[in-house]
Design brief:
Shape: globular
Number of domains: 1
Structural class: alpha+beta
CATH topology: Alpha-Beta Plaits
Largest sheet: 4 strands, antiparallel
CATH class: Alpha Beta
Number of helices: 3
Distance between the termini: 17 Å
Number of strands: 6
Radius of gyration: 16 Å
Strand order of the largest sheet: 2-5-1-6
Order of helices and strands: EHHEEEEHE
Strand content: 25-35%
CATH architecture: 2-Layer Sandwich
């Protein structure tokens, strides 16, 4: 089953990291990712830029409305995602627990099964 792992955190904290802090966090995350990548279970991983760079297109009554920024104001923002092929939900939960253990500060991971409508190479 393919899962999307949606990564939420306080973006003011994350985007305030120094270059050295950023590199250290990314190195720890890579140690969690590598076994899944080697097993061909890890698909695309993405980090989103801050919500200040976002544009939202919302369906309107007559035409779409384009708004600067995200639609919802929240303390935690969606900052990135993983795609992972796991045999069970428990395996996806274990992956998230590993990410949480090496990621500083408060963060949360939302796990959602998904379907690929335009299949590609998962092990990119």
């Amino acid at each position: 089953m393919l899962y999307a792992i949606l990564c939420y955190a306080n973006e003011e904290t994350v985007f305030a990291w120094s270059k050295d802090e950023e590199e250290a966090v990314m190195a720890r995350l890579v140690t969690v990712q590598e076994p899944y990548a080697r097993a061909g279970k890890l698909g695309p991983v993405g980090r989103l830029m801050p919500t200040t760079t976002a544009t939202t297109v919302r369906k309107g009554k007559d035409e779409a409305l384009v708004i600067d920024g995200p639609f919802a104001e929240t303390k935690e923002a969606l900052l990135g995602f993983y795609t992972i092929d796991c045999d069970t939900l428990e395996e996806a939960v274990a992956f998230c627990k590993q990410l949480s253990a090496v990621n500083p500060g408060s963060s949360s991971y939302e796990i959602r099964p998904f379907y690929v409508f335009r299949p590609g190479d998962l092990a990119t």
